[in-house]
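User: Predict the structure for this protein chain, please.
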Amino acid sequence: MMDTHNQKPLITIGMTCFNAQDTITRALESAFAQDWPNLDIIIVDDCSTDNSAAVVQQAIKDHENARLIMHKENAGPAGARQTVLDNTNGEFLAFFDDDDEALPERLATQYERIVSYECESGAPLVACYASGKRIYPNDYVLEMSAIGSKEEVPKGEMIADYQLFYGKHPGVFYGAGTPTCSLMARTQTFKAAGGFDATFRRVEDVDFAISLGLAGGHFIGCPEMLFIQHATEGGDKSAKKNKDAEVQLAEKYKDYLKSVGRYEYAKNWPLIRYYHFKGQHGMMLWTLFKLFLRAPVKVTRHFFTTAPKRFLHERKMKKEQS
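Assistant: Here is the predicted structure, written as structure tokens:
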């Protein structure tokens, strides 16, 4: 009788870790609890300055399918994810974050979604995202429906347009975007997109999605809630670092953006968000006005589609616990 373990392809769980001594055990336990029978787990400690590496070593000591790789220098999220990719043995690769929890059925559900979609569509490059929820310190919960989990699936340049200048295509479901913490794909799909660009210290997930989109990738999702994200704050999550990384995106994809007439738009919209977060409303309005003169319809639609939702979201994040 054939061993059912061997019928299942090997899935690698990749988990990057940086100063996560208080949360990494919870994340690892959710990886160990996956109901997929054939998996290995790679943890990359990105030169943590706390006790993370020792915590990981203790947590995995009884798990032969888990291994720790330690960076000698901090490479950032993209660099750490690339180390995972470079050391992956699995036919499939799924990323878990060091402060998230994955439900036990996450891998199996995403695997079935990928294989089913490949059979239906014949698409060679498929990225699958999980739905989940984000819990803030004040107990505010944000439900996150996965991109491509209903309606039309975004594919190809659709995802580049959305990520670079909010160029939404009618009938396409973009959901919660493309966070790598909920992503699973064939290992070859990651490699076909060029992997992760270590020059990005933020928005490396967006950069990967754009690269995959321009390579012809399809972006599907699972409607089931498969992970719980615990929102945290840190130096790498500052408004300035986000702004700088988003401007870097516009420069990296300058040729594509110029070909669709959206380079100035993609370069300047991050400044509007940055001025808003910093409370520099005069600069925000001036930048918005200049962009409006270039693309009045696009700016108006973008602003009134996203600003009210953003305002309500920020109020909920800041609301004190009752």
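Residues 240-318 form one domain.
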